[in-house]
């Protein structure tokens, strides 16, 4: 079972080179601290955010006509993150995940080939309901393998629709994802899905753990251990790096994702959405 | 993606014969198709048409025109579920078993109003179809801002002839079920409980060619030519025509709110 923590280092808005600097210093730090590692595959991520366009008078059958200027409520809504590991010609079709977080959020998976058309449909045909806000992408992420840990790191590029005065390509910051194996995860089926998360059969876990009830308790403990491990790795990575005024945001994988293969994808997506929310 | 379409009608009595003819034309066994269409509409009501022009008369001097948001329409959209014979009469939740024979079970479909003016003899409309491979389609479509309207079923046969999808089908529905539902049914009715929407039991024959880029004239022209050839092939058997485009309009109509006339207090009749 793979457990992850995400760190987001926002870059200073005025210094356009800030996030590259951060990225490079982190890379150097990793290579310095963990001398046996080297960059592996690349990975990319695409995240698009749309905001709902709810009319302020939402009650049905009003006597007056609906207010004509739909007000944009400050509720972050539909996002579509696509973690894809390049160059992996993986046969699993479920790559794009579209989510509309309200309280819990609704998640669907659609084939990555249909990303663009679905997104075009949302922005063109459902435009009274949804407005495009911004798109974030990580075009060239790097991956490092350090023992039981895997570090995915990437510099983000943002794309806003022109016209609101923002410059075309900002760089909101750098994202670092530290993953580690917990539990007796090395057995069982290893499905190299889009981000290499393992899918263990429930049965395999049963066999290893034995009693179901004990398993709950053990998993709890492991999760907090894993969190501490991840935080240690992060602390080691960032020694000697000065992030200036930037506040690093940390998001850990949700607890309910543990031990459920289906849900683990959903929780991974939610974790990424959490980190990438409130950007811009 | 765009589609070029031609339609024809087949009466119930001739259905068997037409299936055989189409199997011959397409040189393949008919592929049985059973689908369930769940119709959604946006929760928002559309604005009154023409309202965009009525507002905006300001006295401000030389105000730069802010970008006028084009009046966009609201559309009906559909979730289409692929079914097999065994699914009828059983409990099929929207989350369960999202692929059937490797094909995605649920698809989120959108059809635009067909274009005015045909291209070389076929109706053209823009369409978008997104396969849903994971998650809960109904919950997703609802949180996009839609609400459930109704559902109906389609049974028919599909043939593929060169680039044309030939779809001989008819619409079935569960009689007597009215719009008190707020979500698609968890338990599908038995197949025998469904009745054709058209009481005569007639079928529709749809010939469709999908074109990725409608602006590529060479491809579009070739597609239209194929449809024309199919139409002549079917002459004498089924007449293929271009239907009324407004009959295929998926936009939501604006419904004006009628103000109640003020009620006059009852006047006592004075006899003169």
TrEMBL record, chain A:
Component of the Mediator complex, a coactivator involved in the regulated transcription of nearly all RNA polymerase II-dependent genes. Mediator functions as a bridge to convey information from gene-specific regulatory proteins to the basal RNA polymerase II transcription machinery. Mediator is recruited to promoters by direct interactions with regulatory proteins and serves as a scaffold for the assembly of a functional preinitiation complex with RNA polymerase II and the general transcription factors. It is found in: Nucleus. Component of the Mediator complex. Signal peptide: none annotated. Pfam families: Med20. This is Mediator of RNA polymerase II transcription subunit 20. Coiled coil: none annotated. GO terms for molecular function: transcription coregulator activity. It comes from the Eukaryota. Keywords: Activator, Nucleus, Transcription, Transcription regulation. Belongs to the Mediator complex subunit 20 family. Residues 74-93 have a biased composition (Low complexity). GO terms for biological process: regulation of transcription by RNA polymerase II. GO terms for cellular component: mediator complex. Transmembrane segments: none annotated. Residues 56-95 are annotated as: Disordered.
Automatic annotation (TrEMBL), chain B:
One of its GO terms (molecular function) is transcription coregulator activity. Keywords: Activator, Nucleus, Transcription, Transcription regulation. Residues 56-65 have a biased composition (Polar residues). Pfam families: Med18. Its main location: nucleus. It is found in: Nucleus. One of its GO terms (biological process) is termination of RNA polymerase II transcription. It comes from the Eukaryota. InterPro entries: Mediator_Med18 (IPR019095). Residues 44-65 are annotated as: Disordered. One of its GO terms (cellular component) is mediator complex. Component of the Mediator complex, a coactivator involved in the regulated transcription of nearly all RNA polymerase II-dependent genes. Mediator functions as a bridge to convey information from gene-specific regulatory proteins to the basal RNA polymerase II transcription machinery. Mediator is recruited to promoters by direct interactions with regulatory proteins and serves as a scaffold for the assembly of a functional preinitiation complex with RNA polymerase II and the general transcription factors. Component of the Mediator complex. Belongs to the Mediator complex subunit 18 family. This is Mediator of RNA polymerase II transcription subunit 18. The lineage of its organism: Eukaryota, Fungi, Dikarya, Ascomycota, Pezizomycotina.
